[in-house]
Amino acid sequence: MRGVTEPDLPELLRVDREVFPDDPYPYFVLRAHMEVHGDSILVLDDGQRLHGYALFLTVSDGCIGWILSLGVAPERRGAGLGRRLLLEVLRHLRERRVHEARTTVEPTNAAAITLYQSLGFSSEGTVRRDYLEPGQDRVIMKLVLG
């Protein structure tokens, strides 16, 4: 696991498309995130290819950290890589003295919800209809970092 670099962009785009095939980030969005928030993108790299990534930001005067994307390539799921990524994101947020971590999860993504809950995240208990756009509902999950 390491921070993203510019040569990673094509592989990052590939992984994002594998992880989020219905709604991947366009190349220019990943490029912009890397340019503006490069220290907030972690990648899983085996030396030959990327197998996952996490994108997180700090907002609200540094009090809230949003995990915008966290995903592991389908062929590498089930090996604890998502947990490793999430733990590293939380470590970075704590280092930045962020008080609360938040993310949104598709309501049918039981694996992601279970992962977040296993590390102490809780949800508001309601599905936010059309949160991202019409037809894209989300559950907001939060963790107080203390």
UniProtKB/TrEMBL annotation:
A Pfam family matched by this chain, by name? Acetyltransf_1
User: Per its UniProt record, what PANTHER family does this chain match?
Assistant: ACETYLTRANSFERASE (PTHR43420)
Keyword Transferase annotated: yes
Can you give the residue ranges of the N-acetyltransferase domain?
A: 1-146
State the source organism's domain of life: Bacteria
The identity of this protein, by name, is: GNAT family N-acetyltransferase
Task: Name the UniProt key words of this record, in alphabetical order.
Answer: Acyltransferase, Transferase
